[in-house]
Amino acid sequence: MLIDKFGRNINYLRIAVTDRCNLRCNYCMPENQHFVEREQLLTYEEIIRLVALLSEHGISKVRVTGGEPFVRKDISSLLKNLGSIENIKQVSITTNGVLTFSHIADLIAAGIKNVNLSLDTLKRDKFLQLTHRGDFLKVLNSFHALLANDFNVKLNMVVMGSNINEILDFVELTKALPVSVRFIEEMPFNGQGHAYSGLEWNYTKILSHIETKYKLYKEQDPANAIAVHYKPEGHMGSIAVIPAFSRTLCGSCNRLRITATGGVRTCLYGNEVLNVRDLMRNGVDDVRLLEEIQNAVYNKPMDGFTAAASAKAKVPESMSLIGG
Question: What is 131-183 written as a DSSP string?
Fold first, then answer.
């Protein structure tokens, strides 16, 4: 099994399929982002081999991330194959929604019901300002189509100085829609360093602001939760706040991240500790591959602060490279 030295059972794999994205959100990547060459990406065959192996040793939940997963060709075939791996109980995906509408039938066919949709504003002009693209209506169409097809939708909003005046608008979405709106503390993973001056709105400030208008009831947080969950009184949906920068929930982390180029990260704030692409392309068998991953997992840091303290990079990489 994949167990670290603190006794945490790692059963959740987040795997990126590309570093490319069709949006250019300021907090996620620099304007001069250099994308890797296609041959540097894990192939679908390599991803399936890896997930199948890890599923035999405790991984039961897989989230496909990017970049934007739907910009990669034939992504639907990968999703279907992931869903057919015997010990994988849940496959989910994180997307910006621009291309999602045309893939809804494929998601249904692959048995995927959980979709995290990234949306940081409900205003068309601000969307253009934040993403540098004019695809706001495409994202809204995807959002409503997912709900209409009974997907479990989590709407991810990164709270920044430019959108704090919309926090209550996002909460209002949950009044008549069965959606979970998740407010995420901004993190420094934009590949620029200088563009991030520190956290202005932490999770407690976000909650206090919401409570100026809404009565919130605390919900039971799932095991290994990265968010604190609440139900606004009288609302169909719910909200959650993710202390991504405050890192107050790191101690129960059950996650393993693999970047689009095969880099293994045992913590979002830490370094790449292993490259499974290189191991596989150098011909290692599954026994050796598993041993290397188990060793990396065993040395997983206790929390994000410990990982950041030992990280080598002075300027954190962009989120699109890390894989979310």
Answer: HSS--HHHHHHHHHHHHHTT-EEEEEEEE-TTTGGGHHHHHHHTTTS--EEEE
- Reference 67, options 196, 259, 257, 226; nearest CA is 259
Q: Which residues contact 294 (CB under 8 A, 6 or more apart)?
A: 2, 57
- The residues with which 216 forms a beta bridge, in sequence order, are 232
Question: Is 94 strand, coil or helix?
Answer: strand
Question: Tokens for 222?
Answer: 């799932």
**Burial class of residue 178 (count of CB atoms within 10 Å of its CB; 0-12, 13-18, 19+):** middle
* pLDDT for the residue 197: 47
Question: Would you say residue 60 lies in a domain?
Answer: yes
Q: Residue 1: inside a domain, yes or no?
A: no
Tell me the pairing of strands 238-242 and 228-232. antiparallel
For residue 62, what is the enclosing H or E element? Answer: strand 61-65
What pLDDT, in 10s, does the model give residues 79-103? 999 999 999 999 999 999 999 999 9
The vertex-206 CA angle with 202 and 208, nearest 5°, equals 120
Q: What is the CATH number of the domain that holds 55?
A: 3.20.20.70
The structural domain count of the chain equals 1
3-state secondary structure of 250: helix
Model confidence over 173-201: pLDDT tens digits? 999 999 999 999 988 765 555 445 457 88
Structure tokens at 72: 């990669």
Please give the Cα distance from 304 to 269 (Å, whole number): 5
Let me know if residue 4 belongs to a domain.
Answer: no
Q: Which amino acid is located at 218 in the chain?
A: K
Domain that holds residue 96: 12-322
Determine, yes or no, domain membership for 38: yes
What is the number of H-type helices and E-type strands within the chain? 11, 12
By CB neighbour count within 10 A (0-12 exposed, 13-18 middle, 19+ buried), where does 313 fall? exposed
For residue 67, whether the previous peptide bond is cis, meaning omega lies within 30 degrees of 0, is: yes
